[in-house]
Every structure is written in C-alpha cells, then in structure tokens.
Amino acid sequence: MIAAAGGRYVDLAVMAPVHPLRHRVPLLVSGPHAQAAVAVLTALDMQPRIAGPEVGQASSIKMLRSVMIKGIEALTAECLLAARRAGVEAQVIASLQASDPGTDWPGRSAYNLERMLVHGARRAAEMREVAATVAALGLPDGMSAATARWQDLLAATGAEPGPADLAARLDRVLARL
Is 143 a member of any domain? Predict the structure, then answer.
C-alpha cells in the first residue's frame, strides 16, 4: 500500500529515552530503504544505525533487548526488596559485588528501582507486548510476563523515587506494598 502510493517504508526503533538526548537519541532503522533513511536522518543530526535489510528487525531488536534490560530491573526489585525485608540486604549486595566487582550494585540497583517507579506502567505495557512477541516465536514467555507484573507492581505503589539512596528507596517501596 505504501509502495503503491509512491512511499518508502522503514522500521525505526528509538533505543533510549528521548530526554535528555532529544533528536540525538540512538535509532535503529531496518528495511529495504534503511540506507536512504539513515542518510536523511544523519543529515538532520540524528543518530541512526542500520539494523538490517528487513522491516521488523529494528523493532525486534528493541523488543527482545527489553527482555534483558527490564528483566534485570525486575530481578533487582524482587531480590533486594526481599533481602531488605529479610534484613540481609547488605550481605546480598556484598555477595553480588564479590561475584561481579565491575558493577556498582548499590548504584545500579537504586537506578533500576527509580526507572521502575517512574516508568513502570509504560514499561509493563511494553513487556506485555514483548511477552506476546516471545510467545509468537514459539518460546515460553514467563520471564517477560513476570517482568510486566513487577513493573506494574512498582508503578502502582505510587512511591516517589526520592534521592538515589538504595535503602531509603527500598523502604519507600516496601511501605506501600
């Protein structure tokens, strides 16, 4: 239909929050006209990258990447909320730090919780679509579905992220669960 009308269609995925990068946010572009689209977008000082020759590849990359990114956020919430409630949060974080010393576990965990509190409702909707995509690929979608539930749960608390202090952030969420 688009081609019949003289148009050229590409699949485009926005790969990061638009704020603060605005028009310089990373973009993935796919489809038979991706190269031409990248040329136009680059001339507009945007940050496109070709994801592949087929329409749908850019969107698939974004959606399936979310299994990992939003899934890690959900794992963070479940792990550290339970650890805080059990009184072993410091020991769990120390164990994680020993296993993966390259990650700032307290800082990353506080960030992950902040993202869920601020954007959880939108991310939950996205993860329901991701779960449907995973299922359509013939794979179990349990992790994506559980991630959607955790994103919804934290958003529904209405807790404000507050300062980037992990313990205080965990306490604010626990007080509303």
Answer: yes
Residues 100-130 pLDDT 10s: 999 999 999 999 999 999 999 999 999 999 9
Contacts of range 2-7, beta carbons closer than 8 Å, 24 or more positions apart: none
Instruction: Indicate the residue type of 155.
Output: A
The first and second tokens of residue 69, run together, are 């990114």
Q: What is the pTM of this model?
A: 0.89
Burial pattern 55-93, b for ≥16 Cβ within 10 A else e, equals eebbbbbbbeebbeebbebbebbeebbebbeeeebeebb
Residue 3: phi, psi to the nearest 5? Answer: -65, -40
Distance set, CA 8 to CA 12, 27, 32, 47 (Å): 13, 18, 9, 20
Supply the range of the domain harboring residue 123: 59-174
- Claim to verify: residue 149 and residue 108 sit in the same structural domain: yes
CA atoms within 13 A on the CB side of 162: 12
